[in-house]
Design brief:
The complex is a heterodimer. Chain A is α+β, with helices and mostly antiparallel strands. Chain A folds into two domains: 6-344 and 414-420, Creatine Kinase, Chain A, domain 2 (2-Layer Sandwich), CATH 3.30.590; 430-491, no CATH class. Chain A is 40% helix and 16% strand. Chain A has 17 helices and 20 strands. In chain A, the strands form seven sheets. A seven-stranded antiparallel β-sheet of chain A has the order 3-6-7-8-1-10-15. In chain A, strands 18-19-20 form a three-stranded antiparallel β-sheet, with helices on one face. By secondary structure, chain B is mainly alpha-helical. Chain B has two helices and no strands. Chain B has helices at residues 38-46, 51-54. The radius of gyration of chain B is 16 Å and the shape is elongated. Classes of the chains: A alpha+beta, B mainly alpha. At the A-B interface, strand 2, helix 2, strand 12, helix 8 and helix 11 of A face helix 1 and helix 2 of B.
Chain lengths: 495, 61
């Protein structure tokens, strides 16, 4: 087993009063530049390889959505680094413009409880930048933690899991895909209507309609359930960064933790030679079927003529993990608790759904919308239903219906504000994010480049690049290093 | 309940069609309706009902 470093990247929906999708890239750039904390401006793109495929080749180009290509026709754009407007924040996170969406990438975390707080810190960074942009522009600015515009455009919430290179594509695909499909029921964010496939009034997942392939490197068009991008952000000879693009953005912290917990357990099982024996026929089709069954019993077709259910897949994960994984290993007990929470949600869906509505976004939103319909005599095709759905994801306090649910006591309570603000200031774990945080907070004047796995300084007029190990516990002493030389010496210290 | 379906069924595995997403189809909700507090209902009624119809985004990743 190995400590799995996990991060979450969320692309936020964005609207600016009086402007539209044609201006969205400019507006997203402007928002990122209003970030209240952009300690280091710039990013070192040398180590990014979005066209590299885990299966051992590099594609010539990535597909783009033809609708978006039309938005850009005849428009002059600034150089790519200006468009992306990367900021490295004091907590080691990255904030930038990604295809017209402000994207917050959490600092990497070993623990799920920490990851959840860092994800919530991202909401605060983005919401505060929106407030500042609104004030500056004199226009209303809204940001949405969601994944669809309900009209055929999707934007992602991705998870990254660092895993040993020896696991390779075939083993990762086999171990993770059943979980990505099954976890939809216990992690989905919910959506009114459909954008592809079988018609429905409401479905569990925001993203399920957008998967057209089993596996592939594309992320903008004809997206795959299993993304094969090979961009490890660490020593490529040792590590793969499993880049999961199939999940939804969650407002509920417990759902955020749950979706990552289930994947972590599947990875540990595969890494210890205890594979889950599920082979799905067409995972992209299964995603849609699971998303459309609000009882949580959507049929998952297996290779051959057999089929199973999300619950059976999650139960098999829990049984295998309980039997084969060392419960004393850091993170295992925490992840196993989320399996039990998942089973409790399946049980709830089989009865009154009350617990599910407190603990998973799609069920909370469905209950809220049904109450709205009942009280006001609305039907699913009333535009007010979809607008209430959208407002569930809005981070503006005046519109945020998720926050209203929390205030009314209809969901489990959120973490303390003080705990979230502490994560905005710095990471609480001693992994490589701490090193990045100290670098941008204390030694930005000497920094020339930052990426997930490396820091480049200018020392005596020459560049000096230091690799950040994803396994290393960095010393808290770094925070009090007197000089950049002392800091680099601590970074390079063997521990 | 009357359900209006104006969209053409699309082949599963195909890309969602853009700019025509306002319609809904039949399905069976599975979560019981809670008693919504008045404050929550008030907040929902304050939302511009056309907000989602006007909401358009670029595709991201």
């Amino acid at each position: 087993m190995w400590p799995i470093l996990v991060g979450i990247e969320t692309e936020y929906g964005l609207t600016v009063e009086g402007r539209g999708a044609t201006e969205q890239v400019d507006d997203s750039m402007a928002l990122v530049r209003e970030s209240p904390d952009g300690r280091f401006v710039g990013w070192d793109y040398r180590f990014e390889s979005p066209r590299a495929d885990l299966r051992g080749y590099v594609v010539d180009r990535l597909n783009v959505d033809p609708e978006d290509a039309r938005y850009d026709q005849g428009r002059h754009r600034a150089p790519d680094t200006d468009v992306r407007s990367d900021r490295v924040l004091a907590n080691g996170a990255r904030l930038y413009n990604d295809h017209g969406h402000p994207e917050y990438a959490t600092p990497e975390c070993w623990s799920l409880s920490e990851l959840v707080l860092q994800d919530l810190a991202g909401e605060q960074f983005v919401a505060r930048a929106a407030e500042r942009l609104a004030e500056k522009a004199g226009r209303a600015v809204r940001v949405y933690k969601n994944n669809t515009d309900y009209h055929g455009a999707s934007y992602g919430t991705h998870e990254s899991y660092l895993v040993p290179r020896e696991l390779g594509f075939e083993r990762l695909y086999k171990s993770v895909v059943p979980i990505l499909v099954a976890r939809t029921v216990v992690c989905g964010a919910g959506k009114t209507g459909f954008e592809s496939g079988e018609p429905c009034e409401y479905q569990i997942s925001q993203r399920a309609d957008f998967f057209a392939e089993r596996a592939g490197v594309d992320t903008l068009y004809r997206r795959p359930v299993f993304n094969t991008r090979d961009e490890p952000h660490a020593n490529p000879g040792e590590w793969i960064r499993l880049h999961v693009i199939s999940g939804d953005a969650n407002r509920m912290p417990a759902a955020t933790a749950r979706k990552c917990a289930l994947v972590k357990l599947a990875l540990w099982l595969e890494g210890t030679g205890h594979s889950l024996e599920w082979s799905l026929e067409q995972p992209e089709r299964a995603m849609r079927a699971v998303s459309r069954d609000l009882t949580g019993n959507g049929r998952v077709q297996l290779a051959g003529s057999d089929w199973t259910t999300p619950r059976q897949i999650i139960e098999s994960l829990g049984e295998a993990a309980s039997r084969h994984l060392d419960a004393g290993y850091p993170g295992v007990a925490e992840a196993l608790q989320h399996v039990q929470a998942s089973i409790d949600i399946f049980d709830s869906l089989a009865s009154d759904g009350e617990l599910a509505a407190r603990q998973v976004d799609w069920a909370a939103k469905l209950a809220m919308l049904r109450a709205f319909q009942e009280e006001d005599g609305l039907e699913w095709n009333d535009p007010a239903c979809r607008s209430a759905d959208l407002s569930f994801h809005c981070l503006d306090p005046e519109e945020d219906l998720f926050a209203a649910l929390v205030e009314c006591g209809m969901t489990d309570p959120l973490p303390r504000v003080a705990d979230i603000e502490a994560r905005m200031a710095k990471p609480q774990e001693t992994n490589r994010a701490l090193a990045r945080s100290v670098a941008v907070s204390r030694f930005a004047d000497s920094l020339k480049g930052v990426s997930w796995g490396k820091l480049t300084f200018e020392m005596d007029g020459k560049p000096k690049t230091v690799s950040l190990s994803p396994e290393k516990c960095y010393a808290r002493d770094m925070e009090s290093a007197g000089t950049v030389e002392d800091f680099i010496a601590l970074l390079e210290e063997e521990r | 309940m009357t359900i209006r379906i104006e969209r053409t069924l699309r082949r599963e595995g195909s890309e969602p069609e853009r700019k025509r997403g306002d319609e809904d189809g039949p399905s069976k909700p599975g979560v019981d309706q809670p008693k919504a507090p008045n404050e929550l209902l008030k907040r929902m009624r304050q939302i511009d009902p056309d907000k989602a119809r006007k909401y358009r985004q670029r595709s991201g990743q």
